[in-house]
Amino acid sequence: MRRPGYGSEHTGRRPGYARADMSNHPSERAPTKSSAAHGSDRELRADARRNRERVLQIAQQLFARDGLGVSLDEIARRAGVGPGTVHRHFPTKEALYLAVATDQIEQLVEEAKALATTDDPAALFTLLSRMMASGAENAAVKSALAAAEFDLRTAAPDVAADLTRGVTDLLDRAHAAGAVRHDLTVEELMALVAGAFAAIRHAGAETSHERSAHIAQIILDGLRPRPR
Amino acid sequence: MRRPGYGSEHTGRRPGYARADMSNHPSERAPTKSSAAHGSDRELRADARRNRERVLQIAQQLFARDGLGVSLDEIARRAGVGPGTVHRHFPTKEALYLAVATDQIEQLVEEAKALATTDDPAALFTLLSRMMASGAENAAVKSALAAAEFDLRTAAPDVAADLTRGVTDLLDRAHAAGAVRHDLTVEELMALVAGAFAAIRHAGAETSHERSAHIAQIILDGLRPRPR
Amino acid sequence: MRRPGYGSEHTGRRPGYARADMSNHPSERAPTKSSAAHGSDRELRADARRNRERVLQIAQQLFARDGLGVSLDEIARRAGVGPGTVHRHFPTKEALYLAVATDQIEQLVEEAKALATTDDPAALFTLLSRMMASGAENAAVKSALAAAEFDLRTAAPDVAADLTRGVTDLLDRAHAAGAVRHDLTVEELMALVAGAFAAIRHAGAETSHERSAHIAQIILDGLRPRPR
Amino acid sequence: MRRPGYGSEHTGRRPGYARADMSNHPSERAPTKSSAAHGSDRELRADARRNRERVLQIAQQLFARDGLGVSLDEIARRAGVGPGTVHRHFPTKEALYLAVATDQIEQLVEEAKALATTDDPAALFTLLSRMMASGAENAAVKSALAAAEFDLRTAAPDVAADLTRGVTDLLDRAHAAGAVRHDLTVEELMALVAGAFAAIRHAGAETSHERSAHIAQIILDGLRPRPR
DNA sequence: AATGAATGAGCCTTCATTCAT
DNA sequence: CATGAATGAAGGCTCATTCAT
Questions:
Q1: What is the pLDDT of residues B170-179, one digit of tens each?
Q2: pLDDT of residue D139 exceeding 80
């Protein structure tokens, strides 16, 4: 554990006034690239996007290191922008959680899709290994979000469904090839991945990469078909 | 007095004052049983203890259901006491976390000790099963505490060490009997238990007991000796 | 998200957190005048500064009238700002004490410096008279701060040293001119000024200006060389 | 200054419910010794009085050392009694201030009365010297009380009047003998004594007895008749 | 009469969110 | 669009006071 004391948390500040819909907020407009139509607008967009990216990245780091409790002001300060700017891009703190989580999941979806094109029946294990190895940082964020009961399935059904679909495909293939125990469902699989994150995180930040891998391996071993 | 009210003063709220030694706080006095000497004294204690228990129990429930973010005022309200009473028993919020965590761990230690007296080489698995099955509530609290980087090893070294010792004993025996994979260390084992909690919790509160058991089983299977 | 509300979290209120470095707090940034570069920036600052001044002034009044015990909320209310605004300018209550005290001392330092440029060997007495006459309000604040053992010498060594230096200069000159008893040290002098404040204050707020002056005069007379 | 930070203060807790008259509270009954009529009652009284004395003494010490801000619980703890006992003797915190102040003043009144029986025209100075020398502890308490605008003249008119009367007598005699400047009134004199306390206190707790005496002397010198 | 547990108002501080510039 | 000052609702904690034992 990094610090003796505190960490992942969020304040549970009940917004009070501005709980409203976050619909036509700029950051909610689909980030299509097609909007790069006429010059001057695009120029500003570039700036704005750079800011958005920067805030997102800093937020990810700080959430991972200090938990969800870091203040938006702190994030703004470290990102070199004003608090107002953070709010322009992420109208509530929860929106920022969501963006961070989504960002990380999307990478996994990409990977799942890529692996889906191979023939390897054990592609599932490749994906799982990568997921589990994806580092303490990610694990920290996810673990914090999980503890905060921030449920991606509710908050961003699309992304979550995407991931589930990708994993399901790989799981089906593995089942077909007998590479995985027959009584394993996708839900259980996802839960176990979350568990792996937690386990690795619990082992401590100072834990060697090897030990993390070993923990992951043990869980993966549990997924193998049971010897009769 | 010049004015009817009060005058020059300041509250002397020393920021960080709560950090001071909490030694002679009632809840820190060793809970010796020798104090059960004469009736009236015991009677008074009983009331206080009842309150303490009640707060602890409510805190456990609320932490499990809503996370560590629940306010002490809320806990007090639900426990039917004033905020000051919570403070009397648990001088800081962290002390309350600690008490909740300790309370839960102590049960496990008891169980570990009990199992240590049997001859069963698979006693380890019995303990692990029980730990993992110990319910969503516990899992929720532990997961929340873990995510908050609340480190029991730092906060209550004694209890943590007790648990580790108990588990180590069982692990050694399992190793000797070849009931567990040879490359498993206690640290990994503890991490995996934490991971199991997270996994079960991730599966969702509405998950059936069976599914939880299945997830636990998968992790336990991973601990078995590898088939050569 | 599972539930509509929030989840596992804790607020991360670190007791004693306010003790952390207040370095890059706005009010700590050196008040350079160079920031008066371009209009819009200065405009914004003007608003903030107006607020700051207002809070400081109200605080001074209330501290003088009701003692250091007045709550920050009360000060905020009377200044027509929210508690957060007070905090923005004065991150802790002590910072506000300090600001009030510093504000008052700085005026004296100015005066001391001005008098230092004259040739009058009795300039010391002029300064002391002015200090003592500087009004019940100031006296009240200082007396309150002194009673609270708020030590300017520790809290703001620079300002305190400035004042001491100025007074020392004048005292030296007075010594040289034989205008003051030879056995008087700066420390004693400062203590006596504090005593004069207390005496005037003790005489009561409703005391006439004349009586205050008389009390001051008596103390000043004690500083004169002893008739042999 | 003893500690860098805080000190004399009181919390300004506005009692809310129990602001009522403190009349027929046991501690308000005149402490005549005649009530020692029948045995069993007298036995209890002795205990109670011992407790009262002890609390008073501890309160005096703590007020002097740490300011009026010390909590009643702390005082109770150090006095070896329960908080309830403190309240039995001093129903409000202010009552405790009053008792402490009164206790100290009464000693001075005794002294003044004793001196009033001598013929020494400079008896006034003897009294003043003693008052001023009466130690940092007393000064601390008085200064704290003064800063808190705790005005003995309002709170305990009798004792205050007693003291004033005694001092007036001595002042009159000194005036008659030409031992004191003719333009000095009792009110000024009392204010100056308060000022002397503050000055001595300001010089710091670590100040030598000699320096304290010197400061007192300077003030006393100011009281002497002006050389024409 | 003493104890000490309980109360609850209030304090200082934090921080998500809003809004004037 | 960005800035950063302002808001204000909590939150954790303290402590004078009350009351059951």
A1: 999 999 999 9
A2: no
Torsion of CA A141, A146, A150, A154, to 10 degrees: 110
DSSP assigned state of A35: G
Is residue D5's pLDDT more than 50? no
Residue range C103-223, CATH number: 1.10.357.10
Same fold, B43-91 and B101-223: no
pLDDT-derived band of residue B44, with 50, 70 and 90 as boundaries?
Answer: low
CATH 1.10.10.60 fits B43-91, yes or no: yes
Task: Kindly report, residue by residue over D103-115, the tens digit of the pLDDT.
Answer: 888 888 888 888 8
- Map out the domains of chain B as residue ranges: 43-91, 101-223
Question: Closest protein residue to F7 using CA and C1' atoms?
Answer: C82
For chain B, the straight-line distance linking the first and the last C-alpha, in angstroms and rounded, comes to 90
Return the H-helix or E-strand segment holding D220: helix D209-223
A203 within 8 A of B191, measured Cβ to Cβ: yes
Report d(CA A104, CA C144) in Å as an integer: 57
Give the architecture-level CATH label for domain D38-91: Orthogonal Bundle (1.10)
**CB–CB contact D218 C214 (8 Å):** no
Contact B1 D148 (CB under 8 A): no
DSSP class per residue in B28-43: GS---GGG--SHHHHH
Convert the pLDDT of each residue in D61-76 to its tens digit.
999 888 888 999 999 9
B82 is near strand E: CB distance < 7 Å: yes
Cβ contact B50 with chain F strand, < 7 A: no
Per-residue pLDDT at D23 exceeds 50: no
- Shortest CA–C1' contact from D96: which nucleotide? F16
For residue B10, the chain D residues in CB contact (below 8 A) are 6, 9, 69
The pLDDT, as a whole number, for residue C34 is: 42
Q: Which of B19, B140, B205 shows the shortest C-beta gap to C16?
A: B19
CA B121, chain centre distance (Å)? 27
Token pair of A98, please? 């969501």
d(CA D131, CA D127): 6
What are the pLDDT digits (tens) for A113-155? 888 888 888 888 988 888 887 766 677 777 777 766 677 778 8
- Encoded tokens for B63: 């932490």
Of the candidate CATH numbers 3.50.30.80, 3.30.499.10, 1.10.10.10, 1.10.357.10, the domain formed by B101-223 belongs to 1.10.357.10
CA A19 / C1′ F14 distance in Å: 34
Tell me the CA–C1' distance in angstroms for D18 and F18: 9
Domain D101-228: homologous superfamily in CATH: Tetracycline Repressor, domain 2 (1.10.357.10)
Nearest protein residue to nucleotide E8, judged by CA and C1' positions: B82
Q: C206 or B82: whose pLDDT is higher?
A: B82
Nucleotides of E strand lying within 7 Å of any protein CB atom:
1-21
- Which homologous superfamily does the CATH classification assign to the domain defined by C44-91? Homeodomain-like (1.10.10.60)
Summarised one tens digit per residue, pLDDT across range D114-128 is: 888 888 888 999 989
A31 touches strand F (CB under 7 A): no
Span C65-103, pLDDT tens digits: 888 889 999 999 999 999 999 999 999 999 999 999 888
Task: Decide: C and B in contact? Rule: 3+ Cβ pairs under 8 Å.
Answer: yes
Per-residue flag: C94 CB under 7 A of strand E: yes
Half-sphere exposure of B164 (CA within 13 A, CB side): 13
d(CA C80, CA D159): 43
What does CATH list as the number for A21-91? 1.10.357.10
Among chain A residues 61-100, those with CB within 7 Å of any atom of strand F: 80-85, 87-89
Proximity of residue A182 CB to strand E below 7 A? no
Q: Hey, are the CB atoms on C9 and A155 less than 8 Å from each other?
A: no
Give the pLDDT band (50/70/90) at residue D135: low
